[in-house]
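Collaborator request, handled under Task 6.
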Amino acid sequence: MKRPKRLRAEVRALIEELESSLELLRIDRRSSVSNPEVSSWTVVEHLDHVAAVDLEILQRLQKIANGTATGENGRPTLVGRLVLMTGAIPRGKGQAPDSFRPTGRSLEAIIEAMNEAHSMASALDTKIPNLSSSPTKMRHFAFGHLNAYQWIRLAHIHHRHHRRIIEYILEA
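Structure tokens returned to the collaborator:
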């Protein structure tokens, strides 16, 4: 793969997204706000979803970095390549799998999950050489088989996608 600088930049971008979400959860009293014209989920439900997805992706990346991941052959799907190339997920085109839909967790539990994701993402910074040299690919349900760089880029893109939706909810 050999993209350590780009990988490090994506890890840092994800960390910034996590910090922004944590700040919103900690200080913004509008986290329970909703706007059905923008999304059927509240702000906190978006953050619950993002925390769950980030943790799953970061756990995959830890396995890749530690050499314990079960790799698969394959490539990203056309949709996966488009998302990774454009850096954007189209609004309203996909549905979160049931296992990643908001669970009704308490605000404290979501903050805890975000903090855990932040710690895991921060720890990846020391594992960039392992991640960037690993040929391991793991399958995403919609975007196909992704390498470590593609997984961290997807986490960053996904987090930013939901942050924008949250901004639209709060502006409305």
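The cover message to the collaborator said: "The two ends are 42 Å apart (CA to CA). The CA atoms of residues 22 and 115 lie 8 Å apart. Please let us know whether this matches your experimental observations."
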